[in-house]
Amino acid sequence: MRSARISITALALILGLAGCGAGGMDDLVVFTEEVKARPAQPLEPLPEIPTVETFVFDPGGRRDPFMMDDQSLQAATPQTAGDIAPDPLRSKEELEQYALDSLRMVGTLEQDDTRWALITTPDGILHRVLIGNYLGQNNGQIIRIDAAQIELIEIVSDGTGQWQKRQTSIALRQ
Predict the structure, then answer these.
(1) How many domains, the chain?
(2) Assigned domain for 100 exists
């Protein structure tokens, strides 16, 4: 009984493989030869590109839109009762796009009288910072670097349009 079952299975397998032969493809070969024999159709010409007249800007005594005048400078400067306010015209530094708690101090470097702190960002990029550099999203400026931590002064809004200084630090990650 078992040998009969094996024989039937082998016969079915042989017949199945015989059906996968190369026969029955003659019509496909003829079709591809006919398509290759057809003459190529001409390509449509490229559309003509219209010419654009050049324009020379003459300011005619108007102000440069990329430079601040006195009126724009006053509008950009925050109105505060005290002298504490972030500088709106200061260019942001690379590490100011990250929240302070997402930055990690991983070490320090010292050469001559200069000490750098090594900071890693959440995406694993290592940065070297000095006293005076800015970190975090609250205008935090580095005021001191020692072997164990970085001390910063942040300028934060109190919610009423006033600004106040806040001291914070980033400790060395162990």
Answers:
(1) 2
(2) yes
For the chain, the straight-line distance linking the first and the last C-alpha, in angstroms and rounded, comes to 74
Amino acid at 64: D
Are residues 98 and 167 both part of a single domain?
yes
List of E strands, the chain: 104-111, 114-120, 126-129, 134-135, 140-145, 149-157, 163-171
| Domain limits for position 12 | 2-37
Q: Is the whole model's pTM more than 0.70, yes or no? A: no
On the 0-12 / 13-18 / 19+ scale of CB atoms within 10 A, 132 is: exposed
117 CB-contact burial (10 Å; exposed 0-12 / middle 13-18 / buried 19+): buried
Question: What backbone phi and psi angles, to 5 degrees, belong to 96?
Answer: -80, -5
* Nearest CA among 119, 64, 123, 67 for reference residue 93: 119
> Is 59 among the domain residues?
no
Nearest-10 Cα torsion for 61, 65, 69, 75:
140
**Kindly report the CA angle at 136 between 68 and 78, in degrees rounded to 5?**
35
Do the domain assignments include residue 87?
Answer: no
Span 20-75, pLDDT tens digits = 655 678 889 899 999 999 998 888 999 999 998 988 877 788 877 777 777 777 77
Q: Does 45 reside within a domain? A: no
